[in-house]
Amino acid sequence: MRNYHDFSKRSLPAVCGAVFLALSAPWAAAHTATGVAPEVAGAHSADLTTARLENTIGTRCALGDGVPQNYSLAAHWFNKAALHGYAKAEYNLGMQYYFGQGVNKDEAKAAYWWEKAAAQGIPAAQYNLGNLYFLGQGVPQDYGKASIWWRKAAALGNVQASRNLATLARVHPEYREVAAVREKTVVAP
After folding, report:
1. Which residue has better confidence, 6 or 184?
2. How far apart (Å, rounded) are the C-alpha atoms in residues 144 and 1?
3. At what angle do helices 107-119 and 123-135 cross, to 10 degrees?
4. The model's pTM
5. Most CB atoms within 10 A, among 36, 92, 97, 133?
């Protein structure tokens, strides 16, 4: 029988992984209805394989899984994978920028990478992007855009996005209906 000490040592990377990907309940409640996140990369399957591997290396560096923990190296690998258009890496790189792990904290860059991941259907990126628009962090404050991104995340099963929408509707009733949100959303020229 395994003793408790051995089990906790083995479970630590898994726990750290969950913490890294979620980082905080309010910011990354990444629950999807299907449980399957898109994996888009370039036009070729070789790009997807390369990007997936680069993202995996970045994740291991961030978690210290089999290698010494190194956020700078993690950001380097996430960036390589993100440049292939790999949605999960774009999300991870956004997290690095938002929290300043291995890179200078930069909410505008976090928004940039989360928007790329969100456009590819990553619910946690959609949720986080909605939060940035709601708070005006790294992007101009825009409740309409916050609502739009939260609606997309909620449609993919993100429970916290649904809660945020309900709160927004109570505080600003004009954002209750989708049509009203579209009218009030600032559109860049």
Report:
1. 184
2. 56
3. 140
4. 0.72
5. 92
